[in-house]
């Protein structure tokens, strides 16, 4: 009888904990976005951050890395790195859009998201900067 009471208590304790835990793990709200136009350079994150490689002499390598799935990003003239993301669910990679601009200066319009220390951009337009 004592064992049955102990088991019942354990089951009730778990049942009470599940709603509290599910509230803590609720999906985060979408972050607020703001429309921007920014100028920067399309970079290969792996080689730039890991090896310090950059510039015209690195363009072909950046394109190969992009083909292998290494994310391309935009290093803004403000010194911030912007990760390109999509509005699609599930999301789609943005390397195909950025690859023609690898290691070049670009002008980008879109919506920027700042969340949890990261910056991302939903790209509307991208073109070479003069």
Task: Describe the protein in words.
- Residues 8-12 have low confidence and may be disordered.
- The chain has helices at residues 2-24, 45-51, 59-67, 95-98, and strands spanning 33-44, 72-76, 81-85, 105-115, 118-128.
- It contains 4 helices and 5 strands.
- A 5-stranded mixed β-barrel has the order 1-2-3-5-4.
- The protein is globular.
- The chain has one domain: OB fold (Dihydrolipoamide Acetyltransferase, E2P).
- The protein has 130 residues and is an alpha+beta fold.
- Strand 2 (72-76) and strand 3 (81-85) form a beta hairpin.
Compact summary:
This protein has 130 residues and is α+β, with helices and mostly antiparallel strands. The chain has a single domain, classed as OB fold (Dihydrolipoamide Acetyltransferase, E2P), CATH 2.40.50.500. The protein has helices at 2-24, 45-51, 59-67, 95-98; strands at residues 33-44, 72-76, 81-85, 105-115, 118-128.
């Amino acid at each position: 009888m004592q064992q049955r009471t102990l088991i019942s208590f354990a089951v009730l304790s778990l049942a009470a904990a599940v709603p509290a835990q599910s509230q803590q793990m609720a999906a985060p709200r979408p972050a607020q976005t703001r429309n921007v136009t920014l100028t920067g350079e399309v970079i290969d994150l792996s080689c730039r951050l890991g090896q310090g490689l950059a510039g015209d002499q690195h363009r072909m390598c950046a394109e190969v890395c992009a083909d292998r799935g290494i994310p391309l990003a935009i290093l803004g003239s403000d010194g911030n790195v912007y990760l390109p993301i999509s509005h699609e669910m599930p999301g789609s990679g943005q390397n195909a859009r950025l690859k023609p601009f690898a290691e070049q200066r670009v002008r980008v319009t879109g919506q920027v998201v700042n969340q949890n220390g990261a910056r991302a951009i939903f790209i509307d337009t991208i073109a070479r900067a003069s």
